[in-house]
Amino acid sequence: MRGMPTFRQMEYFLMAANCGSFRIAAERLHMTQPPLSRQIKELENILGGPLFTRSKAGVQLTSRGMAFHKEVPLLRKQFLEIQKKMDAFSLGEKCNWNIGFTSVHSPNIFNQIRKFLTDKLGSDSVSFTYGYSKKLSDLVSKKKLDLAIIGTPSPIPEFDYKLLHLVTERMYVAISKSHILSSKEEISLIDLKNEHLFWFQRNENKEYYDKCEYFFLSRGFNMKRKHDPGDNHILLSLISAGEGFSIVPHSITLNERSNLAYIPLVEKESEELSIKIQIIYRADIDFNNAKLITDIHRVHSGINN
C-alpha cells in the first residue's frame, strides 16, 4: 500500500496544473518552490508514476496527470463534505445554529462571515436573523439566538453576557450630490447647522441616542430633525432627492447611488459618534461554541474601514 494522497497534495497539484509552472504555483500559494516540488513528487510516488513532464518552459500534465486531474475536483468535494461533518462533531454535534446580524449596518459588511458560517456548518444547519441590536440582544438572552453581531452602544437586557469587539466604524455624512457641500473631503456637523438631519427615535436605542444628543448639545450642534424611516433604502432615496442628510457608519457607504455622496466626518466628531460592531453571546457558552466565536472573530478581523 503506497498510502493515500493528502488534501494539501491535491491542492498543490491543481495549482501547478492550472499555472503550468511550479514556480508560479508556489508564488500563488505563498510558499517557496522546493516544498511544493517535494509534495508533488510524493503524490507521484503514491499514484505510481509521473503526473507532469518538466522542462525549462514549465510543466505539462502527462496522460496519468490528465486522468488524475479529472478526478481531483470530485475527491476535493468529498473531502470537504467529510471535513464539514467532522466540524459539526467538534462543535458539539449541534445541528442548527441561529445567528443574528444588526440591520443598521450594510449587510455587505457581513458577507465574509455569512459565507464562512455556511461553508463550515452547511447551509441547512445555519439560519440568519436581521434586526435592531436591541432585538437581537433580547433574542440571545432568551436563547433564541446562539450569538449576534450588534452595534454598540445599544440597550442590552439583564443577563450574563460577553461582548467581543470586531471593528469600530468611522462615521460619514450621507448627502445629496446636488448639495453645495457634497464635494468636501471631510465635513463637520457645524457645516450642516441649517440642514435637516434624518434621525431615529430615542426608544429605538436610548443609549446611543443619549450619547449623540449629549455630544450635539455640548458642541452647539442644533440641526433640524426629520424622522428616520427605519429602512436604509428609503432613507438613502430621500437623501438623494435632497430632503436632508444623515450620519451613517462606513458600511452604509457601500450602497452607491447616482445622486448620493458620502463624506467622512472630521475625526474627532466621528470618534464621538462611532459605532462599535461586537459579538454578543451568553457567558455560559460551552467550549465548542466559543471556538466558533473565535473563528468568526478571525474571519471578521480582515474588515477595514
From TrEMBL:
Superkingdom to which the source organism belongs: Bacteria
GO molecular function: DNA binding; DNA-binding transcription factor activity
Pfam families documented for this protein: HTH_1, LysR_substrate
Keywords: DNA-binding, Transcription, Transcription regulation
Residue span, HTH lysR-type domain: 5-62
SUPFAM superfamilies cross-referenced by the UniProt entry: Periplasmic binding protein-like II, Winged helix' DNA-binding domain
GO cellular component: protein-DNA complex
Family: Belongs to the LysR transcriptional regulatory family.
UniProt cross-references to PANTHER family, sorted A to Z: LYSR FAMILY TRANSCRIPTIONAL REGULATOR (PTHR30346:SF17), TRANSCRIPTIONAL DUAL REGULATOR HCAR-RELATED (PTHR30346)
Protein name: LysR family transcriptional regulator
